[in-house]
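hey so u asked for the seq, here:
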Amino acid sequence: MKRSQFLLALASLSIVGGSFFLRTAFSSTSQPKIITDTSRYKEIRNQLWSNNDQVKHFPHEIPTDAKGVRIAYSPKFLQGSGFFQIRLKEPPKKIEKLLSQYRSSAKHKYRGGNTNDHINQPNGVPTTFFYTSDSPAESFPANYEILVLNTEDKGRPGFKWNHGDSYGVAINSTASEIIYWSEKW
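ran it, structure tokens below
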């Protein structure tokens, strides 16, 4: 094969490969799917979520006494956000203990709502949406206490919270339910 034929073949391959990459990267249908398969929980928590500090408050594995377990995971994609949530029902005494523990270490506390509601309050910070809800609602009902364990603003001056992360829990004592969450954008 002559050098010019080789370069032509290489250029053609580069164009085809590059166009595939660009189409995949910018196609609206190429956004990651939300993983809801609870059997993948340990894999997501221990391997796929890139910052273990943001999920250290999550259970290491799904508790054997948990009921109604739901997860929602979406990796950070290009300029979009990523999130991870696990929702489960636990015995009332366990929920009360967890509520007491997390209330004492929470840096911010909210009742119901979602990240847009919370960030727009005085001294508000971003939280999460209710990804593991039984309905298409994005907001937590008022009987959920959203406890923010930590946030980090990675924006730049004039673009507060343009990038960052937050994590915490949402607890509904009446339903004996806890949702562990982590967000990054």
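The longest strand covers residues 140-153. The chain has two domains: 1-30, 32-184.
lmk if thats what u needed
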